[in-house]
Amino acid sequence: MKGMRARSPVVACIAAVLVYALVLLPISSELWAATGPTLWLQESQDACAAAKAQAQADVNGATWFAIGCLGGVLGWIIAYAIESNPPAYALVGKSPDYVAQYTDCYRIEAKRIRSKHALNGCLAATGLELVLYLLLVVAASSE
User: Where are the domains of the chain?
Assistant: First the structure.
């Protein structure tokens, strides 16, 4: 055993990196290309669809229509400014990517529903006010 020297840890590290780079990296990248994006995309679509359905069930459109009627433009601004968080029970046991996607889609959908109903309420109240004003003008001019 005179001719054999002990290998240094640096040489072992370099050898491990080379094996990984030449053998394992191409295999893992091929596997990711075959399955990874598809699985992530499917999970992302499932999370977004579930979040939109939950937001539609949670947000009360009639309440936001009334807020838009009573608050006018301020009611619409409030509806747009509020951030909603999804219920915690919908996220229990899910992956971090699923939770992030679900939360983003839930907030966007809830904001869309709230602001749409508040804007419709604001426009309806404004239209009613204009009609009443025109009726008052017509009634005052006919006297």
Answer: 9-142
